[in-house]
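pasting for the record
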Amino acid sequence: MTQSDTILSNVARVRAYDYSNQPTLVTGAANGTYLYDGNLKRVRSVVNGRTIYNVYNMAGQLVHVDERPYTDAQAQSVPEKRTDYVSLGGKSIARVENKSTATYIFADHLGSPVATKKGSAAIKRERYTPFGIAMDDNPDLTNQGGFTGHIKDSATDLNYMQARYYDPVMGRFLSIDPVTMMDADMNPGMFNRYAYVFNDPINGADSTGMICDEGLCNKVANAIRNALPGPDNPQELVEKYGQPISDIGQTMPGGQSISNGEMQVVGALTASLGNASMGRVGPNTTAAPAATRSVTATIPKPTITQPYARPSNATTPAQRAAVQGKPCTEYGKVAPVQRANHTPPLVKEYYSTGTINTTRMRSTKAVTPHCPTCSNAEGGRMSAFSKAMKREHGFD
């Protein structure tokens, strides 16, 4: 298959794509072919005669790279190189080449290596621009884990992020997001399906090439979305928690960062509330250009006095009718009868706020379409969450 739903950048060498818009043939300064499994994981690449096998675990983490022996362009024999990755907390902390001394990886908050050390050898520094251009020439990272832990492909100079290839020069993926445009009404960044982490690479990473990692990306948008009962009336934020918010923008702890776009979002929210104030960024906080204020909102922790109980008639006929014929926000399937799932789930709203806004609960804007399979899976997850919260609050 030739190029479809893809964009061109400095990688005009990519000549052919498969049905899922993954490059299969590269020609030019380097020649290569690629093979993928059913989960879009690249399992084999052949570049300039050298065969490389990649192995990922169920969580999508790189665990092994096997570079087979070959003869290079200068007729020199290059031995086999096998690299095992050791991870902790979802981040690579070391790599072991050919079962020799471990090379320890010191990574930043996004998983990008900032320094490596092997035995008594000097520490090697690694630096990247926000969108991932390597500032230090380190041949050890060729075809190995680099920017946000992903492989830097030697044939294309692209970062292979599993479901898609990413061009750090353009700050864009080469193909569209395979995940449907869920929450596009809440996050305008999702309308550009080539964009990388909502154009906020300082705060976000994409571990699979499909969606921004939860907890890193779009902190402010997610916080506001989950906090506001109604996006058209920010004043409800104050009413929801039962008391005014004394400050939006407490000093952020060192190591966190704030983008200019996030600052503007919080500034707009502050203006809407009227009784909130903006704080300054702390001295150890990394701030993007033109961003001088933090985004942490001080919201009182709710007091939970009884376990969650789903309100009666939580889903209305109008809500059920509103989701029919629309694709499931998880995988895009349109079932004969779609289900209306609350976003955020009511049980999460209750344990994060201490109450449920019943007016919003029955609004068609409060639900998204789910197919029965995804709805049942979501129900199982929320049931487990509810049980965990009951234990945490001592209701069991």
